[in-house]
Amino acid sequence: MKKLLLTAILPLMISCTKKEQIDLAKSSLNEPVKNVISYDNDLFIGVQTVEYPFSLLLEVENSANYTFDGIDLKGQRVIFQIGSEKLKTDSITRFGGGHVDLKPIKNENDLNAALKSYGAESKIYGVRIEMTTPELKAEILKKIEAKYGKGTKNPNTDNGLYWNIKKENKYIFFAPDYKRLIIVNNSNLSKTCYWDIMNGMIDFGGCDNEKYMAELVKNSTKPEDVKGKPVIKIDKNWNINGLVLGKTNEEELVKSATNKSFERMSEFDGSTGNVSQIIYQDNYHDFYFYLSANKANPENQKGNLINGYAINDFRKVAITFENGLKVGQKFADIVKSLDKTSIKNYDDLKFSNYIEIKNQTYTVTLNFDENMLLSGMYVK
């Protein structure tokens, strides 16, 4: 009798302990962050400007916790979007191109600390689902069309579609060219415009692009309001304030007169969780140093070497060049002053607003504004 009783109870115990899967197709996309994740998974939170620069992102790696209308999403990356007013800045250019600053979170304390540091909301408003196979793309599209009908062709991509589901306050973006399904709750978003790197600008009717983009970067620092501009001197070898690329280590950077208002950030490899790069950032002045991370011990400052820097807006610093370059110098004049064999993108200069200069093991990128005047630089 006891044996029969235990046999009957065992399936019930298993069903009680098994983690229930979350159907993302049914999500209202306003759930508390803590309710849509499991700390048994690999979780990373922070900034990823290529994926989406204007909100906090929480990536879930290798999870078996999610489905989409019955389709198992095991093995697919799931990324939740979390509102953060602090990230409404010109972050794509400020971070010198694609920027990743994702930190692992292991428990609720880690989550709450990250949300607080970014001034973020405690609930999600969007989800981005990776689609790595043609079969998964086809299955997901079939489910969406069965529920919402045929989508509108995205004019910015070859195969993209989108839906404006007004009764559910949702936008759905099927972006197979970029292996993404993106769904956002638009309750607090523009009802006429949408933009991200994988979909381009979508006009739902009456979109004012300029006004919309201004809203996305409304917290950017205005150059004319910047105070305490760092004094910067670039030598003929493109080293900065005596800090030598490939030789100066983190300890020397920290002790230098240049280090006045930088914040240290660690960039993690999403697949391993190891520190891949160290960044010293001065967001107020759009000034950044990049350092290679010592594989054995990234906290050993003597083993981390400066391998690049970015000054994204010369109006926010006081900068001079030993080689004769000047802030606001014309694109054409700089091209004429250089040996064309040193220009990495020489064949594309007719279409570029930047000049790439080869220099030993790194590249110097000079950036120009809308009037093609020298306005910033990136060396790495």
Folded structure, characterized:
- With 380 residues, the chain is of the alpha+beta class.
- It folds into 2 domains: 22-217, no CATH class; 231-379.
- Helices cover 17% and strands 33% of the residues.
- The protein has 7 helices and 23 strands.
- It has helices at 2-17, 91-94, 108-117, 134-148, 209-216, 250-255, 331-337; strands at residues 22-23, 42-48, 52-61, 66-68, 71-72, 78-84, 100-104, 120-130, 152-153, 161-165, 170-175, 180-185, 193-196, 200-203, 231-234, 263-268, 275-282, 287-292, 306-311, 318-321, 354-359, 362-368, 374-379.
- The strands form 5 sheets. A 9-stranded antiparallel sheet has the order 7-2-3-6-8-12-11-10-9. A 7-stranded antiparallel sheet has the order 16-17-18-19-23-22-21, with no helix packed on it.
- The longest helix is centred in the N-terminal third of the chain and has 16 residues, at 2-17.
- It is globular.
- The protein starts with a helix and ends with a strand.
Summarize the structure.
With 380 residues, the chain is α+β, with helices and mostly antiparallel strands. Helices cover 17% and strands 33% of the residues. The strands form 5 sheets. A 9-stranded antiparallel β-sheet has the order 7-2-3-6-8-12-11-10-9. A 7-stranded antiparallel β-sheet has the order 16-17-18-19-23-22-21, with no helix packed on it. Strands 1-4-5 form a 3-stranded mixed β-sheet, covered by helices on one side.
Can you give keywords for this protein?
disordered N terminus, nine-stranded antiparallel sheet, alpha+beta, single chain, 23 strands, globular
